[in-house]
Design brief:
Length: 61
C-alpha cells in the first residue's frame, strides 16, 4: 500500500468541487436555458471547473 500523499486534495474539496459543478450545470440547464443546454456550454463549464481545481491544488502547495 502506498502511503497517503500530502499533495492530494482532501475528500471534502472533491465533494465541494463536484457540488459546484452539478449546481452550475443544472442551474444553467434548467434555470437559464429551459432544459436544453448547448454542448459547448457544458464543455466550457467542465474546463472552468478543471481549471479551478488545478489552480486550487497549486495554491495549496
Amino acid at each position: 500500500m502506498e502511503p497517503i500523499r500530502k499533495d492530494k486534495p482532501s475528500p471534502g474539496l472533491f465533494l465541494l468541487m463536484t457540488a459546484v459543478y452539478f449546481a452550475s450545470y443544472f442551474g444553467l440547464k434548467y434555470g437559464v436555458f429551459g432544459g436544453a443546454i448547448p454542448w459547448y456550454y457544458n464543455l466550457v463549464l467542465i474546463l472552468a471547473c478543471l481549471g479551478l481545481a488545478v489552480w486550487l491544488s497549486k495554491r495549496g502547495k
